[in-house]
């Protein structure tokens, strides 16, 4: 499949769409202002949030043990190791870690898994929601000693 085109005088983009030996003309025209969301960027986390956090949730009657290790990486923001252990060990690749106020977000876009929680300094916990596709589960993390 390919598109071959050029910008024309009125700001449109026109050309041919080709796929499997078939060819069809196309014209793309701007209909309004661009609506683009910038990709999330990692942010640093406060010192109290750095370290190892543990919690547990159940899905379909099977407990899952969660370990989340958060660390700051200088100017690059925070990084995370996110491990979920159930019937097997799952080391989730983490793309983005952000902190905005007391809200912590950890995203593994590759797996479709994320976690959002609010840090409570007095309770020394992060209380939030574990998302796996359409499934939302409560997950409270406590700092390891």
Short description:
By secondary structure, the chain is mainly β. It has strands spanning 2-7, 13-19, 22-28, 51-59, 62-72, 78-85, 89-92, 96-100, 103-108, 113-120, 125-132, 135-143. β6 (78-85) and β7 (89-92) form a beta hairpin.
Protein architecture, described:
- By secondary structure, the protein is mainly β.
- It folds into 2 domains: 1-35, no CATH class; 47-143, Lipocalin (Beta Barrel).
- It is built from no helices and 12 strands.
- It has a 9-stranded antiparallel beta sheet with strand order 7-6-5-4-12-11-10-9-8, with no helix packed on it.
- The model has no long low-confidence stretch (mean pLDDT 92).
Find the CATH superfamily of the largest domain: Calycin beta-barrel core domain
Please give the share of residues in helix. under 10%
N-end to C-end Cα span = 55 Å
Largest sheet: 9 strands, antiparallel
Share of residues in strands? over 45%
Low-confidence stretches: none
- Order of strands in the sheet with the most strands? 7-6-5-4-12-11-10-9-8
The secondary-structure element order is: EEEEEEEEEEEE
Beta strand count: 12
Name of the CATH first level of the largest domain: Mainly Beta
Instruction: Report the principal-axis shape.
Output: elongated
| Gyration radius over CA | 22 Å
- Number of helices, counting only DSSP H or I runs of 4 residues or more: 0
Provide the residue-averaged pLDDT: 92
Q: Under the CATH scheme, which architecture of the largest domain would be assigned?
A: Beta Barrel
**Number of domain modules:** 2
Tell me the CATH topology of the largest domain.
Answer: Lipocalin
What structural category arises from helix and sheet content? mainly beta
